[in-house]
Amino acid sequence: QVQLVESGGGLVQAGGSLRLSCAASGGTFNIYAMGWFRQAPGKEREFVAAIRWSGGSTYYADSVKGRFTISRDNAKNTVYLQMNSLKPEDTAVYYCAADPRGPYFLREFGYDYWGQGTQVTVSS
Questions:
Q1: What pLDDT shows up at residue 107?
Q2: Which residues contact 118 (CB under 8 A, 6 or more apart)?
Q3: Cβ neighbours of residue 29 under 8 Å, at least 6 residues apart?
Q4: Cβ-count burial of 64 within 10 angstroms (0-12 exposed, 13-18 middle, 19+ buried)?
Q5: Start-end of H helices in 65-104
Q6: Tens digits of per-residue pLDDT, 62-109?
Q7: What is the pLDDT of residues 95-106, one digit of tens each?
Q8: What single-letter DSSP state applies at residue 65?
Q9: Of 11, 33, 49, 83, which alpha carbon lies 20 to 30 A from 59's?
């Protein structure tokens, strides 16, 4: 029923920027929060950022705070991740996720719906 479609990944040099987008579709559904996670080769998936749908409060992993910005377009059920000052260690597959109920939006298990992932590669 619900699907998340991600876009915006690609190759970028260190210090560059990318903006990821993720649109939720498949019928109307409530959104408590949407988030971004990433998984590097050989590593487990980790939390990157999340945004509460009501009010738009944002939350970031320490590793990206000050460089990444999560935002939303409520009318389009779309979440964005603006990534600036990218580092090689940001290289990963990035996944968006939707949490229809809360409250565990800072944890992977709190999300019911996931996108397919989009590759971000940062080179020097």
A1: 94
A2: 6, 7, 8, 9, 20, 93, 94, 95
A3: 1, 2, 98, 100
A4: buried
A5: none
A6: 999 999 999 999 888 899 999 999 999 999 999 999 999 899 999 999
A7: 999 999 899 999
A8: T
A9: 11
